[in-house]
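This week, look over our next protein:
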Amino acid sequence: MEEITLAEATQQVTIATTPVVQLGRNGRDVAQVAPEICANKDQIHICFIHADTGGRGSSRRLAGRSSAYCEAMQQLCARDPSRCIILAPRHETEAWVLADPNAVIAALNYSGTAKSIDLPANGAAAEALTDPKAVLDAATNKVFNRRRHPAGSQLFTAIAQTQTLVALRQCASFQSFEKNLRRALTSLGCLAPA
């Protein structure tokens, strides 16, 4: 959002560094979460619904469930549907984490090549993996060998510090997310209509 708004915003835009509201603390059922969204509608300008698509058949179930949150939000409090964005990395979040092999290597403080620890070459290759979490864990195990090491998910923050948007944009699911984000920012008047 920062990159997009800095380059293209039609007005001053302030972006919170942490979520203003965390939804679903008392349950993730649509009937529980949608009223939470509406109760906080003055604080929530864009609602992000995150879920990994997981294995076979999960993509279809995810699309229906995630859309249900957005549809319920629209019905209950007449919110613009473009301001509800489904954040769905292909298979698992680790596909986006692995999209930039140089960032992974830096987070692991590894001096070898991405290929030597079996990392995908780019975002498209990362998204093609059927089990990106296993690939990240295997790479971490190779770097740290038998020594105690952080779990793959603990590396997320370190990877995010150096990961490039150019690498992420090689993932089709990230391209879809960014397109929807631009639509939401336009709906809010932050970006000029295309």
